[in-house]
Amino acid sequence: MDLLKLIIRNVFRHKLRAFLTILGVCVAMLAFCMLRTLVAAWYTGVDASQANRLITRNKISLIHMLPVAYRDKIRQVSGVTGIGHGIWYGGIYKEKKNFFPQIVISGIDYLDILPEFLVSEAARKAFRTERNACIVGRKLAARFNWKLGDVIPLKGTIFPGNVELVVRGIYKGEFKNTDETVMLFRWDFLNEHLRKTFSEAGDKAGWFLVQIADPDRAAEVSRDIDALFENSLSETMTETEKAFQQGFVAMTDAIVGAIKVISIVVIGIILLVLANTMAMTARERSAEYAVFKTLGFGPGFVFLLIAGESVAIAMIGGITAAILSFPSARAFHWQISNFFPVFHVSGATLAAMLTISLVVGLLAALLPAIRIGRTSIAQGLSHMG
Fold first, then answer.
1. pLDDT digits (tens, 9 = 90+) for 182-241
2. Residue 47 pLDDT > 80, yes or no?
3. Residue 337 sits in which domain range?
4. Does one domain contain both 139 and 104?
5. Is residue 242 part of a domain?
6. Which of 356, 279, 357, 346 is nearest to 312 (CA)?
7. How is residue 118 annotated by DSSP?
8. pTM (2 decimals)?
9. Is residue 292 pLDDT above 80, yes or no?
10. Domain end among 185, 200, 234
11. How many CA atoms lie within 13 A of 312 on its CB side?
12. What count of other Cβ atoms lies within 10 Å of the Cβ of residue 1?
Protein backbone atom coordinates (compact mmCIF):
# COMPACT_ATOMS: atom_id res chain seq x y z
CA MET A 1 0.00 0.00 0.00
CA ASP A 2 2.83 2.40 0.86
CA LEU A 3 4.50 1.59 -2.45
CA LEU A 4 1.27 2.39 -4.32
CA LYS A 5 0.94 5.73 -2.53
CA LEU A 6 4.54 6.57 -3.34
CA ILE A 7 4.00 5.71 -7.02
CA ILE A 8 0.89 7.91 -7.23
CA ARG A 9 2.71 10.82 -5.59
CA ASN A 10 5.62 10.42 -7.97
CA VAL A 11 3.28 10.46 -10.97
CA PHE A 12 1.92 13.90 -10.09
CA ARG A 13 5.07 15.36 -8.56
CA HIS A 14 5.75 17.26 -11.80
CA LYS A 15 2.15 18.08 -12.68
CA LEU A 16 2.69 19.74 -16.06
CA ARG A 17 4.95 16.97 -17.34
CA ALA A 18 2.55 14.32 -16.07
CA PHE A 19 -0.44 16.04 -17.67
CA LEU A 20 1.27 16.45 -21.04
CA THR A 21 2.51 12.86 -21.07
CA ILE A 22 -0.90 11.48 -20.10
CA LEU A 23 -2.47 13.68 -22.77
CA GLY A 24 0.00 12.35 -25.33
CA VAL A 25 -0.78 8.75 -24.39
CA CYS A 26 -4.51 9.48 -24.49
CA VAL A 27 -4.38 11.09 -27.94
CA ALA A 28 -2.18 8.31 -29.32
CA MET A 29 -4.40 5.54 -27.94
CA LEU A 30 -7.51 7.33 -29.19
CA ALA A 31 -5.96 7.56 -32.66
CA PHE A 32 -5.10 3.86 -32.46
CA CYS A 33 -8.69 3.06 -31.48
CA MET A 34 -10.20 5.04 -34.38
CA LEU A 35 -7.79 3.51 -36.88
CA ARG A 36 -8.46 -0.05 -35.72
CA THR A 37 -12.20 0.59 -35.68
CA LEU A 38 -11.92 1.94 -39.22
CA VAL A 39 -10.21 -1.28 -40.31
CA ALA A 40 -12.97 -3.30 -38.60
CA ALA A 41 -15.60 -1.19 -40.39
CA TRP A 42 -13.91 -2.01 -43.68
CA TYR A 43 -14.57 -5.70 -43.02
CA THR A 44 -18.15 -5.26 -41.80
CA GLY A 45 -19.63 -6.76 -44.96
CA VAL A 46 -17.33 -9.77 -44.66
CA ASP A 47 -18.18 -10.32 -41.00
CA ALA A 48 -21.91 -9.98 -41.65
CA SER A 49 -21.90 -12.60 -44.40
CA GLN A 50 -23.83 -15.82 -43.92
CA ALA A 51 -22.37 -19.23 -44.74
CA ASN A 52 -25.60 -20.45 -46.37
CA ARG A 53 -25.69 -17.70 -49.02
CA LEU A 54 -24.02 -17.63 -52.42
CA ILE A 55 -23.66 -14.84 -54.96
CA THR A 56 -23.88 -15.61 -58.68
CA ARG A 57 -22.62 -12.85 -60.96
CA ASN A 58 -21.23 -12.38 -64.44
CA LYS A 59 -17.86 -14.10 -64.75
CA ILE A 60 -16.28 -11.11 -66.49
CA SER A 61 -17.28 -8.42 -64.05
CA LEU A 62 -20.06 -7.34 -61.76
CA ILE A 63 -20.88 -4.43 -64.07
CA HIS A 64 -21.95 -6.93 -66.76
CA MET A 65 -25.47 -8.12 -66.04
CA LEU A 66 -27.04 -11.54 -66.43
CA PRO A 67 -30.35 -12.57 -68.05
CA VAL A 68 -33.01 -12.83 -65.36
CA ALA A 69 -34.08 -16.09 -67.03
CA TYR A 70 -31.08 -17.73 -65.32
CA ARG A 71 -33.08 -17.61 -62.12
CA ASP A 72 -35.30 -20.62 -62.89
CA LYS A 73 -32.32 -22.78 -63.88
CA ILE A 74 -30.41 -21.91 -60.73
CA ARG A 75 -33.46 -22.65 -58.61
CA GLN A 76 -33.49 -26.24 -59.89
CA VAL A 77 -29.90 -26.98 -58.78
CA SER A 78 -29.73 -29.56 -56.01
CA GLY A 79 -29.17 -27.93 -52.62
CA VAL A 80 -30.66 -24.54 -53.54
CA THR A 81 -33.53 -23.59 -51.22
CA GLY A 82 -34.11 -19.97 -52.15
CA ILE A 83 -33.15 -17.40 -54.75
CA GLY A 84 -33.58 -13.71 -55.45
CA HIS A 85 -31.93 -11.26 -57.79
CA GLY A 86 -30.76 -7.69 -57.46
CA ILE A 87 -29.30 -4.68 -59.26
CA TRP A 88 -27.28 -1.76 -57.97
CA TYR A 89 -29.22 1.37 -58.90
CA GLY A 90 -26.87 4.21 -57.94
CA GLY A 91 -29.29 7.13 -58.16
CA ILE A 92 -28.86 10.63 -56.75
CA TYR A 93 -31.14 11.93 -54.01
CA LYS A 94 -31.27 15.75 -54.33
CA GLU A 95 -27.45 16.17 -54.32
CA LYS A 96 -24.47 13.97 -55.20
CA LYS A 97 -23.18 14.16 -51.65
CA ASN A 98 -26.27 12.29 -50.43
CA PHE A 99 -24.78 8.91 -51.30
CA PHE A 100 -26.37 5.74 -49.95
CA PRO A 101 -26.75 2.15 -51.27
CA GLN A 102 -29.82 1.59 -53.44
CA ILE A 103 -30.51 -2.02 -54.34
CA VAL A 104 -33.29 -3.12 -56.64
CA ILE A 105 -34.49 -6.55 -55.48
CA SER A 106 -36.75 -9.18 -56.97
CA GLY A 107 -39.23 -8.93 -54.11
CA ILE A 108 -40.10 -10.56 -50.82
CA ASP A 109 -38.17 -13.64 -51.93
CA TYR A 110 -34.96 -11.59 -51.65
CA LEU A 111 -35.88 -10.35 -48.17
CA ASP A 112 -36.61 -13.91 -47.06
CA ILE A 113 -32.95 -14.75 -47.69
CA LEU A 114 -31.91 -11.79 -45.50
CA PRO A 115 -33.42 -12.65 -42.10
CA GLU A 116 -31.10 -10.14 -40.40
CA PHE A 117 -33.17 -7.38 -42.07
CA LEU A 118 -36.09 -7.16 -39.64
CA VAL A 119 -39.09 -5.97 -41.67
CA SER A 120 -42.62 -5.73 -40.26
CA GLU A 121 -45.48 -7.70 -41.79
CA ALA A 122 -47.24 -4.47 -42.72
CA ALA A 123 -44.17 -3.31 -44.63
CA ARG A 124 -43.87 -6.68 -46.37
CA LYS A 125 -47.49 -6.53 -47.45
CA ALA A 126 -47.13 -2.99 -48.81
CA PHE A 127 -43.89 -3.93 -50.59
CA ARG A 128 -45.62 -6.92 -52.16
CA THR A 129 -48.63 -4.98 -53.44
CA GLU A 130 -47.27 -1.51 -54.36
CA ARG A 131 -44.87 -1.45 -57.31
CA ASN A 132 -43.18 1.83 -56.31
CA ALA A 133 -42.81 0.90 -52.64
CA CYS A 134 -39.42 0.95 -50.98
CA ILE A 135 -37.98 -0.21 -47.68
CA VAL A 136 -35.17 1.77 -46.04
CA GLY A 137 -32.81 1.12 -43.16
CA ARG A 138 -33.34 2.74 -39.81
CA LYS A 139 -30.12 4.76 -39.95
CA LEU A 140 -30.87 5.93 -43.48
CA ALA A 141 -34.36 7.07 -42.46
CA ALA A 142 -32.91 8.94 -39.48
CA ARG A 143 -30.27 10.59 -41.66
CA PHE A 144 -32.81 12.19 -43.98
CA ASN A 145 -35.69 12.31 -41.49
CA TRP A 146 -37.81 10.05 -43.70
CA LYS A 147 -41.16 8.75 -42.46
CA LEU A 148 -43.58 6.16 -43.74
CA GLY A 149 -45.43 7.52 -46.76
CA ASP A 150 -42.72 9.97 -47.82
CA VAL A 151 -42.04 10.18 -51.55
CA ILE A 152 -38.33 9.80 -52.42
CA PRO A 153 -37.20 11.00 -55.88
CA LEU A 154 -34.04 9.48 -57.34
CA LYS A 155 -32.20 10.71 -60.40
CA GLY A 156 -30.71 7.87 -62.42
CA THR A 157 -26.97 7.75 -63.09
CA ILE A 158 -26.32 4.20 -64.25
CA PHE A 159 -29.78 3.97 -65.79
CA PRO A 160 -31.48 6.90 -67.56
CA GLY A 161 -34.50 8.71 -66.17
CA ASN A 162 -35.83 9.34 -62.70
CA VAL A 163 -37.94 7.27 -60.31
CA GLU A 164 -40.17 8.22 -57.39
CA LEU A 165 -40.47 5.78 -54.53
CA VAL A 166 -42.76 5.70 -51.50
CA VAL A 167 -41.36 4.66 -48.13
CA ARG A 168 -43.49 1.75 -46.94
CA GLY A 169 -41.16 0.17 -44.44
CA ILE A 170 -38.18 0.90 -42.19
CA TYR A 171 -36.12 -2.15 -41.33
CA LYS A 172 -33.89 -2.73 -38.33
CA GLY A 173 -30.76 -4.84 -38.21
CA GLU A 174 -30.78 -7.97 -36.09
CA PHE A 175 -27.07 -7.65 -35.33
CA LYS A 176 -24.71 -4.77 -34.64
CA ASN A 177 -22.92 -5.28 -37.94
CA THR A 178 -26.11 -5.35 -40.02
CA ASP A 179 -26.15 -2.50 -42.52
CA GLU A 180 -29.06 -0.15 -41.77
CA THR A 181 -28.29 2.40 -44.51
CA VAL A 182 -29.69 0.57 -47.54
CA MET A 183 -32.73 1.41 -49.68
CA LEU A 184 -34.52 -1.53 -51.28
CA PHE A 185 -37.12 -1.24 -54.05
CA ARG A 186 -38.76 -3.56 -56.56
CA TRP A 187 -37.09 -4.94 -59.64
CA ASP A 188 -40.30 -5.18 -61.68
CA PHE A 189 -40.91 -1.45 -61.15
CA LEU A 190 -37.44 -0.57 -62.47
CA ASN A 191 -37.62 -3.18 -65.23
CA GLU A 192 -40.82 -1.69 -66.60
CA HIS A 193 -39.11 1.70 -66.71
CA LEU A 194 -35.98 0.25 -68.39
CA ARG A 195 -37.96 -1.47 -71.12
CA LYS A 196 -39.12 1.96 -72.25
CA THR A 197 -35.92 3.97 -71.77
CA PHE A 198 -33.00 1.51 -71.89
CA SER A 199 -34.11 -1.74 -73.49
CA GLU A 200 -30.63 -3.33 -73.38
CA ALA A 201 -30.85 -3.40 -69.57
CA GLY A 202 -34.36 -4.82 -69.50
CA ASP A 203 -34.98 -8.30 -68.06
CA LYS A 204 -31.46 -8.35 -66.58
CA ALA A 205 -30.11 -8.95 -63.10
CA GLY A 206 -26.88 -7.67 -61.58
CA TRP A 207 -26.51 -10.78 -59.42
CA PHE A 208 -28.45 -13.67 -57.95
CA LEU A 209 -28.60 -14.18 -54.20
CA VAL A 210 -28.78 -17.93 -53.64
CA GLN A 211 -29.69 -19.67 -50.41
CA ILE A 212 -28.46 -23.22 -49.88
CA ALA A 213 -29.49 -25.89 -47.40
CA ASP A 214 -26.00 -27.07 -46.42
CA PRO A 215 -23.13 -24.56 -46.13
CA ASP A 216 -20.65 -27.45 -46.34
CA ARG A 217 -21.79 -28.01 -49.92
CA ALA A 218 -21.20 -24.39 -50.98
CA ALA A 219 -18.30 -25.25 -53.31
CA GLU A 220 -20.20 -28.12 -54.92
CA VAL A 221 -23.37 -26.10 -55.47
CA SER A 222 -21.31 -23.21 -56.86
CA ARG A 223 -19.71 -25.52 -59.42
CA ASP A 224 -23.10 -26.94 -60.41
CA ILE A 225 -24.54 -23.48 -60.97
CA ASP A 226 -21.61 -22.27 -63.07
CA ALA A 227 -21.67 -25.48 -65.11
CA LEU A 228 -25.20 -24.62 -66.27
CA PHE A 229 -23.97 -21.54 -68.12
CA GLU A 230 -20.55 -22.69 -69.25
CA ASN A 231 -19.72 -21.57 -72.81
CA SER A 232 -22.81 -19.32 -72.89
CA LEU A 233 -22.74 -15.63 -73.85
CA SER A 234 -22.98 -14.74 -70.16
CA GLU A 235 -20.94 -17.18 -68.11
CA THR A 236 -21.32 -17.00 -64.36
CA MET A 237 -19.10 -17.00 -61.30
CA THR A 238 -20.65 -18.27 -58.08
CA GLU A 239 -18.98 -17.85 -54.72
CA THR A 240 -19.93 -17.59 -51.08
CA GLU A 241 -21.23 -14.28 -49.85
CA LYS A 242 -18.13 -13.92 -47.69
CA ALA A 243 -15.79 -14.45 -50.65
CA PHE A 244 -17.85 -11.98 -52.67
CA GLN A 245 -17.48 -9.32 -49.95
CA GLN A 246 -13.78 -10.08 -49.55
CA GLY A 247 -13.35 -9.37 -53.24
CA PHE A 248 -14.42 -5.78 -52.65
CA VAL A 249 -12.13 -5.43 -49.64
CA ALA A 250 -9.23 -6.86 -51.64
CA MET A 251 -9.49 -3.90 -54.02
CA THR A 252 -8.43 -1.64 -51.16
CA ASP A 253 -5.84 -3.88 -49.50
CA ALA A 254 -3.14 -1.22 -49.87
CA ILE A 255 -5.26 1.35 -48.01
CA VAL A 256 -6.16 -1.08 -45.24
CA GLY A 257 -2.51 -2.11 -44.94
CA ALA A 258 -1.42 1.53 -44.68
CA ILE A 259 -3.95 2.18 -41.89
CA LYS A 260 -2.66 -0.84 -39.96
CA VAL A 261 0.93 0.38 -40.32
CA ILE A 262 -0.03 3.88 -39.15
CA SER A 263 -1.74 2.44 -36.07
CA ILE A 264 1.49 0.60 -35.18
CA VAL A 265 3.58 3.74 -35.79
CA VAL A 266 1.30 5.64 -33.40
CA ILE A 267 2.11 3.12 -30.66
CA GLY A 268 5.83 3.44 -31.41
CA ILE A 269 5.69 7.22 -31.11
CA ILE A 270 3.94 7.21 -27.76
CA LEU A 271 6.43 4.60 -26.50
CA LEU A 272 9.27 6.99 -27.33
CA VAL A 273 7.47 9.91 -25.66
CA LEU A 274 6.81 7.97 -22.48
CA ALA A 275 10.32 6.50 -22.45
CA ASN A 276 11.78 9.99 -22.72
CA THR A 277 9.62 11.18 -19.83
CA MET A 278 10.70 8.28 -17.64
CA ALA A 279 14.37 8.81 -18.56
CA MET A 280 14.12 12.46 -17.46
CA THR A 281 12.33 11.45 -14.27
CA ALA A 282 14.86 8.76 -13.40
CA ARG A 283 17.78 11.11 -14.02
CA GLU A 284 16.27 13.80 -11.78
CA ARG A 285 15.65 11.31 -8.97
CA SER A 286 18.95 9.47 -9.04
CA ALA A 287 19.83 10.78 -5.58
CA GLU A 288 16.49 9.61 -4.17
CA TYR A 289 16.96 6.13 -5.57
CA ALA A 290 20.48 6.05 -4.10
CA VAL A 291 19.02 6.87 -0.69
CA PHE A 292 16.61 3.94 -1.02
CA LYS A 293 19.58 1.69 -1.75
CA THR A 294 21.44 2.93 1.35
CA LEU A 295 18.34 2.08 3.42
CA GLY A 296 18.50 -1.50 2.22
CA PHE A 297 15.97 -1.48 -0.61
CA GLY A 298 17.16 -3.63 -3.47
CA PRO A 299 17.11 -3.03 -7.24
CA GLY A 300 13.71 -4.76 -7.46
CA PHE A 301 12.08 -2.08 -5.30
CA VAL A 302 13.60 0.70 -7.40
CA PHE A 303 12.41 -1.03 -10.57
CA LEU A 304 8.87 -1.24 -9.13
CA LEU A 305 8.96 2.50 -8.39
CA ILE A 306 9.98 3.42 -11.93
CA ALA A 307 7.82 0.81 -13.67
CA GLY A 308 4.84 1.60 -11.45
CA GLU A 309 5.02 5.28 -12.31
CA SER A 310 5.41 4.56 -16.02
CA VAL A 311 2.53 2.05 -16.07
CA ALA A 312 0.31 4.42 -14.06
CA ILE A 313 0.85 7.23 -16.58
CA ALA A 314 0.24 4.90 -19.52
CA MET A 315 -2.87 3.31 -17.97
CA ILE A 316 -4.40 6.65 -17.00
CA GLY A 317 -3.94 7.80 -20.58
CA GLY A 318 -5.25 4.50 -21.95
CA ILE A 319 -8.32 4.41 -19.71
CA THR A 320 -9.12 8.03 -20.53
CA ALA A 321 -8.83 7.21 -24.24
CA ALA A 322 -11.14 4.20 -23.78
CA ILE A 323 -13.77 6.42 -22.13
CA LEU A 324 -13.47 9.05 -24.86
CA SER A 325 -13.55 6.44 -27.65
CA PHE A 326 -17.35 6.15 -27.63
CA PRO A 327 -18.23 9.83 -28.18
CA SER A 328 -15.27 10.11 -30.56
CA ALA A 329 -16.51 7.14 -32.59
CA ARG A 330 -19.98 8.68 -32.84
CA ALA A 331 -18.55 11.99 -34.03
CA PHE A 332 -16.21 10.23 -36.47
CA HIS A 333 -19.00 8.04 -37.80
CA TRP A 334 -21.17 11.09 -38.39
CA GLN A 335 -18.59 12.29 -40.91
CA ILE A 336 -18.07 8.98 -42.72
CA SER A 337 -21.48 7.31 -42.41
CA ASN A 338 -21.97 7.55 -46.20
CA PHE A 339 -19.16 5.06 -46.73
CA PHE A 340 -19.09 3.07 -43.47
CA PRO A 341 -22.63 2.24 -42.31
CA VAL A 342 -21.36 0.35 -39.26
CA PHE A 343 -18.74 2.00 -37.05
CA HIS A 344 -18.61 1.01 -33.41
CA VAL A 345 -15.79 0.38 -30.98
CA SER A 346 -15.59 -3.31 -30.14
CA GLY A 347 -14.67 -4.86 -26.82
CA ALA A 348 -11.62 -6.40 -28.47
CA THR A 349 -10.37 -2.95 -29.49
CA LEU A 350 -10.83 -1.61 -25.95
CA ALA A 351 -9.00 -4.63 -24.53
CA ALA A 352 -6.18 -4.06 -27.04
CA MET A 353 -5.91 -0.40 -26.00
CA LEU A 354 -5.56 -1.25 -22.31
CA THR A 355 -3.15 -4.11 -22.98
CA ILE A 356 -0.97 -1.93 -25.20
CA SER A 357 -1.01 0.83 -22.55
CA LEU A 358 0.26 -1.67 -19.97
CA VAL A 359 2.98 -3.02 -22.28
CA VAL A 360 4.07 0.48 -23.33
CA GLY A 361 4.30 1.50 -19.69
CA LEU A 362 6.52 -1.46 -18.87
CA LEU A 363 8.77 -1.04 -21.92
CA ALA A 364 9.17 2.70 -21.32
CA ALA A 365 10.42 1.97 -17.78
CA LEU A 366 12.83 -0.76 -18.78
CA LEU A 367 15.89 1.25 -19.89
CA PRO A 368 15.68 3.91 -17.11
CA ALA A 369 15.30 1.14 -14.50
CA ILE A 370 18.31 -0.75 -15.85
CA ARG A 371 20.40 2.44 -15.84
CA ILE A 372 19.42 3.27 -12.26
CA GLY A 373 20.06 -0.32 -11.20
CA ARG A 374 23.60 -0.10 -12.54
CA THR A 375 24.28 3.27 -10.91
CA SER A 376 26.25 2.99 -7.69
CA ILE A 377 25.14 4.67 -4.49
CA ALA A 378 28.03 7.13 -4.68
CA GLN A 379 27.22 8.09 -8.25
CA GLY A 380 23.55 8.49 -7.40
CA LEU A 381 24.20 10.71 -4.37
CA SER A 382 26.61 12.86 -6.39
CA HIS A 383 23.92 13.59 -9.02
CA MET A 384 22.50 17.05 -8.45
CA GLY A 385 19.62 16.86 -10.99
1. 999 999 999 988 887 777 777 899 999 999 999 999 999 999 999 999 988 899 999 998
2. no
3. 2-44+252-382
4. yes
5. no
6. 357
7. E
8. 0.71
9. no
10. 234
11. 19
12. 5
